[in-house]
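Lab meeting, item 3. Inverse folding demo.
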């Protein structure tokens, strides 16, 4: 069964005063239930809903914003539950740490898989009541891309108040035209702007950032306007092939590769030129190529690799920082003598490593 992530922005759920508008939620729910696919919904709107319920203006402090999110989240889930009835919904609140930490990442993935097996619709949001930097950045677009990784989605749909990516800001330039298809994301990244409405926190910048993350894992992105009506129109077209919104093709890849590219590295390994050459030749990283390291990390953590001229790769380490600090620069056959054991010959195996693009455009 096809899997899709639909991210819904605040402007697609609320009226001009910031209050949740139930008919907008019902239209989105109708479209989702009519797809026949397994859909995870990443829903913004908690802070806006809290403001509407309490009659508050824009919050002035982070704690006030967190409290409004807590108030609004409860109301938002009640409305989603009514909209999807008789189907059950399940609430998932995630933070950046749930993505950065591999153990928590796998745990969240398992919980979402179980939700699909139970036949419920996952409703996902950032955990705004405890988020700090994440909340300031306000990035549910990025969260939705990571959710697409978590569930192995084929498509990420970013539902917004603009019907796609334009050659210029359509609110300011009457000659702006919609871009239907993007094959090379780098060619359009300069068109990104700020937040589309006063009730939203993202804009095309965060949507293209999400498309980049999703695309690195082979997941197509669609930026779509029109709220639930636009979503229904898209899904009702034969094969979802209507010329609507902006379709951003994936570059091809695997979710694990994407996680290594965009996840939060727990440390940095500084490697010599010989190691860089070996890595780019498809070899694993051996301890002899590690000159020094920074950060505290454990077995299986994501680390960045820096060569003499800059970033080289990212990968999952076979040794914790305390162990690696002892064996850095040594030959493989000296590992056991130094540590008293040798679990792996490689610091990072080539199958647990992803190369970064370098000066000639290759990886």
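The presenter then showed the designed sequence:
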């Amino acid at each position: 069964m096809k899997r899709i992530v639909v991210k819904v922005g605040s402007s697609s759920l609320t009226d001009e005063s910031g209050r949740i508008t139930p008919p907008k939620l019902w239209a989105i729910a109708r479209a989702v239930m009519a797809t026949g696919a397994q859909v995870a919904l990443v829903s913004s709107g908690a802070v806006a809903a809290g403001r509407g319920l309490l009659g508050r203006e824009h919050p002035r402090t982070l704690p006030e914003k967190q409290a409004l999110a807590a108030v609004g989240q409860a109301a938002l889930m009640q409305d989603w539950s009514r909209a999807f009835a008789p189907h059950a919904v399940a609430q998932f609140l995630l933070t950046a740490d749930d993505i950065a930490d591999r153990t928590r990442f796998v745990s969240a993935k398992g919980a979402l898989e179980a939700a699909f097996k139970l036949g419920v619709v996952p409703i996902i949001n950032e955990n705004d009541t405890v988020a700090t930097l994440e909340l300031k950045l306000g990035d549910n677009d990025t969260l939705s891309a990571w959710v697409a990784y978590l569930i192995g989605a084929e498509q990420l749909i970013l539902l917004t108040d603009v019907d796609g990516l334009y050659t210029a800001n359509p609110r300011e330039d009457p000659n702006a035209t919609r871009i239907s298809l993007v094959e090379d994301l780098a060619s359009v990244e300069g068109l990104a702007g700020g937040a589309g409405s006063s009730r939203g926190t993202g804009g095309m910048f965060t949507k293209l950032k999400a498309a980049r993350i999703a695309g690195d894992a082979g997941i197509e992105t669609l930026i779509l306007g029109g709220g639930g009506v636009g979503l229904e129109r898209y899904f009702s077209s034969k094969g979802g092939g209507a010329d609507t919104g902006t379709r951003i093709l994936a570059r091809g890849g695997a979710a694990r590769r994407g996680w290594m590219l965009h996840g939060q590295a727990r440390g940095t390994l500084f490697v010599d030129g010989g190691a860089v050459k070996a890595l780019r030749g498809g070899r694993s990283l051996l301890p002899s190529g590690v000159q020094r390291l920074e950060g505290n990390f454990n077995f299986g953590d994501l680390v960045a690799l820096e060569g003499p001229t800059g970033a080289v790769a990212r990968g999952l380490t076979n040794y914790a920082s305390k162990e690696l600090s002892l064996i850095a620069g040594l030959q493989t056959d000296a590992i056991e003598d130094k540590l008293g054991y040798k679990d792996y010959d490689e610091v990072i195996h080539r199958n647990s490593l992803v190369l970064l693009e370098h000066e000639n455009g290759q990886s």
